[in-house]
Amino acid sequence: MKAIVIALQGLPASGKSTWARQYIEDRQGQVGIVSRDVIRRQVFGVEFQADLEPVITTITHGMAATLLESGRQVLADATNLRREHLEAWSRVAVAHGAGFRVVTMTTPLAVCIARDAQRPHPVGRDIIMRMAAEWCRCAACDAPTSAFVATCGWYAQDGLLYCHPGHAPGGAT
């Protein structure tokens, strides 16, 4: 199995962790999930604390490096909504001679909010709405894609969002 970093991307409660668990089901021992949420809880006993995020990044990248050096795939389970986060994961992959790809969850905003509300430690509607407003803009025309997120009528390619496939590089018109 070729070493690769797969960065999962999406709003909280969009299904990233579920996707990761399903992906490794038939690949046990060959793929490692690196989850910021799990590390936060396991190492620091918190759901989120802004000043800890640089430390969490160092830990996740170190875990990924170890997995890649042992010939395993890495699933980077985090929101990865900012371009710089994807670029950082890409650099980790390149530094270890691994491939890189992004899997974007296009779960409707209303579904994410409803799922989050059922969690023992919800992120909260307001935070998810803010994250969606910041992330959900067409990479080609900068149109807000919040309406598209709500109806799941948007398109993702290489970790970027487009309001329709025709705006994506090489997309149909």
Label this structure with key terms.
alpha/beta; Rossmann fold; four-stranded parallel β-sheet; 16% strand
What does this 3D model show about the protein?
The chain is globular and about 40 Å long. The N and C termini lie far apart (36 Å). The model is unreliable at 146-153 (pLDDT under 50). The chain has a domain at 4-106: 3-Layer(aba) Sandwich (Rossmann fold). The strands form two sheets. Strands 2-3-1-4 form a four-stranded parallel β-sheet, with helices on both faces. The protein has a two-stranded antiparallel ribbon with strand order 5-6. 43% of the residues lie in helices and 16% in strands. Helix 5 (109-117) packs antiparallel against helix 6. The chain has helices spanning 16-25, 36-44, 53-69, 83-95, 109-117, 125-135, 146-151; strands spanning 4-9, 31-35, 73-77, 99-104, 155-157, 160-162. It is of the alpha/beta class and 173 residues long. It has seven helices and six strands.
Helix content: 40-55%
The CATH C-level class name of the domain at 4-106: Alpha Beta
Q: Measure the end-to-end span.
A: 36 Å
**Could you please say which CATH topology of the domain at 4-106 applies here?**
Rossmann fold
Mean pLDDT: 82
- Strand proportion, as a percent range, falls in 15-25%
Low-confidence stretches: 146-153
Strand order of the largest sheet: 2-3-1-4
Main pleated-sheet profile: 4 strands, parallel
Number of strands: 6
The number of helical runs is 7
